[in-house]
């Protein structure tokens, strides 16, 4: 299943990585807990994120459910951990060893320039069985770029990390041009349903609570393994993995990302 390609949809929430912007758009209605700057507010109106709930994202509630999602429906629960803004020489290895400890798979939305600086880490993420998505080459707000600019950001990143089937726009800023370019490259636009807000560094306890409280079967959980100090993310992740595993969750890579 290709998230976002079917009916050209994009998923769930838009919250800026490393900004104060917070936005959740549900079924066309927008509620905002934003402290965004004027430019961000403008970007927000352009985001127009059409929403699927996380179960739909995972293919759980629709007929075309992937095998893994069907498995989840039959029994255990599944959650999708996603890590943006890496790879990072210090933090990505810590994330990888924690994931390994819990036999968890995840999806890493990598920045092309960071991947270029850490090629061994890209290989390690793949070798450990995780999925890799495209998070642009230099992390610009894509809704500010031309189609050619967006294309270049995605193509240059794929040149480093290999061809990707999914992308996540920095800050969650998408518009029709972004969707169109992504589609033309065979990439699903993948957002998230649970924001840990780890980018705001609120403390490891808050990071884990932000993940655990709203988490349910099919949740796509947003965290970061790069783009700043991520000790809180690592500590929060440990709690999330431990708690959710005990609750019967399995952690899978996103079906849209290979
Ligand atoms: Zn990002």
Automatic annotation (TrEMBL):
<protein>
    <recommendedName>
        <fullName>NodB homology domain-containing protein</fullName>
    </recommendedName>
</protein>
<keyword id="KW-0378">Hydrolase</keyword>
<dbReference type="InterPro" id="IPR050248">
    <property type="entry name" value="Polysacc_deacetylase_ArnD"/>
</dbReference>
<dbReference type="Pfam" id="PF01522">
    <property type="entry name" value="Polysacc_deac_1"/>
</dbReference>
<dbReference type="InterPro" id="IPR011330">
    <property type="entry name" value="Glyco_hydro/deAcase_b/a-brl"/>
</dbReference>
<feature type="domain" description="NodB homology">
    <location>
        <begin position="77"/>
        <end position="252"/>
    </location>
</feature>
<dbReference type="InterPro" id="IPR002509">
    <property type="entry name" value="NODB_dom"/>
</dbReference>
<keyword id="KW-0479">Metal-binding</keyword>
């Amino acid at each position: 299943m290709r998230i976002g390609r079917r009916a050209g949809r994009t998923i769930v929430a838009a919250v800026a990585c490393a900004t104060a912007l917070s936005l959740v758009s549900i079924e066309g209605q927008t509620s905002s807990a934003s402290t965004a700057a004027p430019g961000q507010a403008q970007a927000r109106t352009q985001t127009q994120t059409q929403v699927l709930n996380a179960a739909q994202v995972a293919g759980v509630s629709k007929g075309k459910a992937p095998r893994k999602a069907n498995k989840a429906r039959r029994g255990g629960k599944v959650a999708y951990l996603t890590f943006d803004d890496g790879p990072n020489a210090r933090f990505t290895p810590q994330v990888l060893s924690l994931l390994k400890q819990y036999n968890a798979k995840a999806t890493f939305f990598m920045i092309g320039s960071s991947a270029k600086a850490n090629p061994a880490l890209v290989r390690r993420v793949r070798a450990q069985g995780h999925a890799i998505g495209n998070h642009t080459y230099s992390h610009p707000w894509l809704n500010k770029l031309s189609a050619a600019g967006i294309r270049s950001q995605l193509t240059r990143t794929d040149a480093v990390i290999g061809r990707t089937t999914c992308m996540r726009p920095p800050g969650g800023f998408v518009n029709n041009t972004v969707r169109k370019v992504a589609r033309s490259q065979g990439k699903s636009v993948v957002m998230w349903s649970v924001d840990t807000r780890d980018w705001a560094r609120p403390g490891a306890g808050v990071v884990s609570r932000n993940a655990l409280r709203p988490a349910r079967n099919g949740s796509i959980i947003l965290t970061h393994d790069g783009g700043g100090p991520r000790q809180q993310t690592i500590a929060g992740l440990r709690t999330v993995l431990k708690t959710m595993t005990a609750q019967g969750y399995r952690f899978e890579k996103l079906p849209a990302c290979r």
